[in-house]
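Quarterly update from the structural biology core.
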Amino acid sequence: MATYSVWSMRPLCAQKKTVFEAIRRARFETNSRRLATIVKHQTRVDENIKEKLENKDVKHKRHEGVQGVGTVILPKILVKSLKNYMQGQPVKQLQPHADAMARYLWCRKRPVEETDIKKQAREYAEKLGVADIDEDSEIEVPKESKKKMTTVMRKLKQHLYNWQPIKYDETKPMTYLLARLAPNYAVTYRVLNEIKKRVPDFRPQAVLDFGSGLGSTVWATDVLWKNSIQQFYCVDTSKDMHNLAEDILCGGSKEENKPYLDTVFFRHFLPIGSRVTFDLTVSAYALLELPNKQERLKTIENLWNKTDQFLVLIENGTFEGFLALMEARDFVMAQREKEQSVDGEDRLQEERNTLGLNTQVGHVFAPCQHDHACPVLNKGTKVPCNFEQKFFSELLGNSAVPSRERFSYIVLRKGDRQTKDAHWPRITQPVMPRSKHVVCQLCCANGQLEQATITKTKHGRDLYRCARTSSWGDLLPISRSEGDMLPVTEQTKSDNKELLHSIEMNEMEQSENGLDNERTISQEGHSNEQVNEIVAHDSPVERR
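Predicted structure, tokenized:
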């Protein structure tokens, strides 16, 4: 019997590998032609930038739809101020508590509404045979029924999220600084930079920051619109957070130095006057801290009435944060429908003139390119519409490796949508460059999600290169007739199962560190007390 050594088998293995590679390449080429659009020459790069690309005035990788800002770093003066403040602080000892706080905030959910609690209680009561669990009833309840009611309440505590307000006393802001200052600044800078890029003539003079915290919005707006802003109005309920924010603005100590910006005003409440308005209103990571839906919508109404130009809302890139933003979006769009209704137009105009409220109709500026219902939410899945931003955190000197932050946001603008604006679709998932074709998921101006497969042959070299060099969150410069749709075929959907799977894996990887904490919160029902123990245990400083 003949024997073969490993070395003698190597040429045969290499030959088989070459054959398999040729077969795989042929399949990809066939699929790329099949996945391309059926109708030729209807979807091309926008004519407004085509000439610039042909004349090489603009590179494809830097076309006008690119909204990314790269990896964000903190301003040098802010880093210097933070280092001065943290001298003598037990930073390394506090870092584990800051990590625990970051996971807790990432798992934060909206408070459970009273109606939802009663509905869930009735379902448990029916299973246990309790006829009525109304606590306001004056009818004497049998002893056996009382035991069943106790069981119902215990199950509610185990399965419902026990939301608790977070109190930022004098010991917590420092831990919050380590946990959230850098990502908050990076995300706020990314969102506000899109406004500056798309509306270069916009130069705000008055800025309202609701839930200002450590003042990350102040620093981001100062970098983007330096010497333009005449007033920063920062609203936060915590006095100690205001004190720390003032120390940072003063180079580390407000007692020793003058503030870097002397136009910043710290308050605990929104301005009372209905005629006091601001060019730019920002609420970053604040909606989930409000106790119920009624308070959230009331806050959104107040912020919208005090906005002259842009209202910016930012939350975690979780499904709960996304739902909080959709509540605000739907509320403002509902007010728009009332404004545009013929029956209520005179009445609302009379109320506006009487109260002096700035209730002008508005539209969604970003990320949506339409005012229709959100197609991501209509899909019925629990995958949020979120985006990703990379940043360097130099607080501990670990700036070699960038961190990533998932976030959801909505930008609302006063006034009607301009017809001259380019309604380019938004790339809502990571771009998939493949052999001779690019796969993008787009949120289009018609209010629909489209899986677009773009090739050089069918759509032109310019659009193909723009799509291939675009990133998650960019606008794709597409020009087509209103009724035309980008290619959506069954083969495209099956070919992009890899995309959906990769997105789900990214979500799992990002939330796996906070999953145990979330499960403990939802099942044991002591969220705020638990995190306070985690952060405050054997530590002189806690968190925000």
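Residues 88 and 474 are 43 Å apart (CA to CA).
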